[in-house]
Amino acid sequence: MNSAQVPTIFAEHRRVARALRSAGRMRDHNDAATFLINDIADDMIERLSFVRIEPQRALVIGHYTTGLAGHFQHTNTAVTTSLIANPAEPLSEGGYDCIAVVGQLDAINDLPGALIHLRNALKPGGLVIASFIGGQSLPALRQAMMAAEPDRPAARLHPMVDARAAPQLLQRAGWKDPVVDSHALTVRYSSLDRLVADLRDQGLGNALARPATPLGKAALARARAAFAARADGDGKTAETFEIITLTGRRSLAGT
Fold first, then answer.
1. Please, what are the domains in the chain?
2. pTM for the full model?
């Protein structure tokens, strides 16, 4: 897609920075949250086992979990990994039998272009699996942010892909045998601050090109109160994460 036609919603340097911070938090803190990343990786392993693919060369963009490493070691796959590769640009190498994208696509300006680049980096018949959080995620956090600034709410959360729009994106990108599905995870939190920390641990912090100024003390207090008001009898608030998974192949003709 022509870059002049792509709106700049996200800043690439902020996407990279949040991924590097996430890796640092996981390296330095044993209690860093990893549940979303692990869920995505486990789901990918199940899909790869179901289609019985044993790739010779694979590329993993995003966090390379112990589970994914074990799976590819079992299949004797040569794996290239990149925590911060930009899928919206042509990948420097190609000829992969399999590409797994763990997150990252939630903060890409040119998502159709990224899907094309991923397809082009495959061998004919190669498979892409890409998972990221989708548009039905974080309803409790969204409501808390609205309560924090009821008169003039600022853009604090990312716009997210609606799973219903994803099939058209894959068709535009020329993926063969495209499949889109989603599932939800529900996690219960004792505080808004714990939720925000979990998001940062897993590289889901703010990557907006024009981020809003931090909440003031009064606004933050309103956000915390609104989040707590949704709590069940045990004092914990349920938050939902929708994980969208895109799968597809490059045609055997290489188109």
1. 3-249 (3.40.50.150)
2. 0.93
